[in-house]
């Protein structure tokens, strides 16, 4: 925690030391590094150091055909790749004036919420491990694998699906897929009391996470914090509800919030979102059988596709926060410019560096995991 009256102090150099965490370290969220300067057990400076994984996506996309970039964008956020595919596709569709078939829109929503579930389960495990609790980490990975099984059946890829393309999706869902999704949701929902008992109401986790890494609403808005990290400060903002895309305006769900703005509040927002995502997917499962038709709009030959000149901005609500693509076309077969507005570039650098000052050394990893950033997105 960084006390409200915290004042940076100068200490004799002999009492200060540096600690380098990462890029391959269990206390770091992905291939990332965090350089700390400490006095005793207290952090007096933290510096984020990105660039240890994929990098330069925006420039790479300028040299690839429009359709080829679908294989590149999921790598910008490995635990939650579907929003990357969908946001990029929405921007290209806006440039081309493509109307995505209704059935494809519902299937996209189902994928987005399954990806959110998988991402949050992964994050819970990492956050728990930073407080010395490893069983939830094993549970989170194992339960997430059940969702990856569904993605593998749907697209052929467990991690990088490359399934959403400009105009819709690559193919329709396989026979019996909706039943298998429903069965997986039943299982995950039945597991939530176990997660509550072992993690969210566990006194070890509650004591370690409460009042740690406090971010108030004014700071969050000033810095451009979004997603669960913003909603943990008490602000009810969600792109799915406030700027609906696809068919989210036809779905019923609550925007999960907490008010404390600390590591525990951020974890609890994500815990609440699990139930809301399950609720959304169940609505899709109920409606999808009655929505027939094609799953993609006709597009030109993808290898010789000149997208009309113009610019487009498309945003979605990923598990990490607001994700947007700004895409510029000069009328050629490749993007002229692409800019990714991802939440992690703020959460994993400015916010993490600020919250770490005044924190104890054992809480630095927890603060990072509570912010739930995607390292490759920082150095995109």
Annotation field: number of helices: 13
- Specify the helix fraction band: 40-55%
CATH superfamily: Cytochrome-c3 Hydrogenase, chain B
Class inferred from helices and paired strands: alpha+beta
% residues in beta strands: 5-15%
> Which class in CATH terms?
Mainly Alpha
CATH topology: Cytochrome-c3 Hydrogenase, chain B
What coarse outline follows from CA principal-axis ratios? globular
What are the segments in which pLDDT stays under 50 over at least 5 consecutive residues?
A: none
Biggest pleated sheet: 3 strands, antiparallel
The multimeric state of the shown protein is single chain
Count of structural domains:
1
Note the run of SSEs as H and E: EEEHHHHEEHHHHHHEEEHHH
Overall pLDDT metric: 91
Beta strands, count: 8
Estimated radius of gyration:
21 Å
Q: End-to-end distance, in Å?
A: 30 Å
Give the helices and strands, then pairings.
Blueprint: E1 16-21, E2 33-39, E3 42-49, H1 57-61, H2 82-96, H3 102-130, H4 135-155, E4 164-165, E5 168-169, H5 177-200, H6 203-209, H7 217-223, H8 227-231, H9 239-242, H10 263-287, E6 310-317, E7 322-329, E8 337-341, H11 344-356, H12 364-371, H13 375-378
Antiparallel strand pairs: 1-2, 2-3, 4-5, 6-7, 7-8
Helix pairs in contact: 3-4, 3-10, 3-12, 4-5, 5-10, 10-12, 11-12
Describe the structure in your own words.
- This protein is an alpha+beta fold and 380 residues long.
- It has 13 helices and 8 strands.
- The chain has helices at 57-61, 82-96, 102-130, 135-155, 177-200, 203-209, 217-223, 227-231, 239-242, 263-287, 344-356, 364-371, 375-378; strands at residues 16-21, 33-39, 42-49, 164-165, 168-169, 310-317, 322-329, 337-341.
- The chain has a 3-stranded antiparallel β-sheet. Strands 6-7-8 form a 3-stranded antiparallel β-sheet.
- Strand 2 (33-39) and strand 3 (42-49) form a beta hairpin.
- Helix 3 (102-130) runs antiparallel to helix 12, helix 4 (135-155) runs antiparallel to helix 5 and helix 5 runs antiparallel to helix 10.
- The protein is globular.
- The two termini are 30 Å apart.
């Amino acid at each position: 925690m960084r006390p409200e009256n915290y004042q940076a102090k100068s200490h004799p150099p002999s009492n200060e030391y540096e600690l380098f965490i990462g890029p391959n370290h269990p206390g770091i969220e992905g291939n990332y590094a965090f350089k700390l300067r400490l006095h005793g057990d207290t952090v007096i400076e933290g510096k984020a150091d990105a660039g240890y994984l994929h990098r330069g996506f925006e420039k790479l996309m300028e040299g690839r055909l429009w359709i080829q970039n679908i294989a590149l964008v999921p790598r910008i956020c490995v635990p939650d790749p579907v929003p990357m595919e969908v946001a990029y596709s929405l921007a290209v569709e806006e440039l081309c004036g493509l109307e995505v078939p209704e059935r494809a829109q519902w299937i996209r929503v189902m994928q987005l919420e399954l990806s959110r579930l998988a991402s949050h389960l992964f994050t819970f495990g990492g956050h728990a491990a930073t407080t010395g609790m490893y069983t939830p980490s094993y549970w989170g990975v194992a339960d997430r694998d059940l969702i990856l099984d569904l993605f593998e059946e749907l697209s052929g890829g467990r991690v990088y699906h490359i399934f959403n393309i400009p105009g819709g999706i690559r193919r329709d869902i396989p026979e019996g897929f909706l039943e298998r999704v429903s069965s997986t949701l039943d299982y995950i929902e039945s597991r939530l009391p176990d997660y509550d008992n072992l993690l969210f109401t566990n006194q070890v986790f509650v004591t370690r996470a409460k009042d740690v890494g406090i971010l108030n609403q004014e700071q969050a808005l000033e810095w451009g914090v979004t997603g669960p990290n913003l909603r943990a400060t008490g602000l009810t903002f969600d792109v799915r509800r406030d700027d609906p895309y696809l068919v989210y305006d036809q779905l019923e769900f609550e925007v999960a919030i907490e008010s404390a703005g600390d590591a525990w509040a951020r974890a609890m927002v994500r815990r609440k979102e699990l139930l809301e995502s399950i609720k959304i997917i169940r609505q899709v499962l109920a409606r999808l059988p009655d929505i027939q038709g094609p799953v993609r709009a006709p597009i030109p030959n993808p290898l010789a596709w000149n997208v009309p000149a113009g610019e487009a901005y498309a945003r979605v609500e990923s598990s990490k926060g607001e994700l947007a693509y700004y895409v510029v076309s000069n009328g050629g077969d490749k993007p002229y410019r692409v800019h990714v507005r991802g939440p992690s570039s703020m959460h994993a650098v400015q916010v993490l560096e600020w919250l770490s000052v005044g924190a104890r050394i054992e809480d630095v990893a927890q603060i990072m995991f509570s912010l739930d950033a995607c390292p490759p997105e920082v150095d995109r």
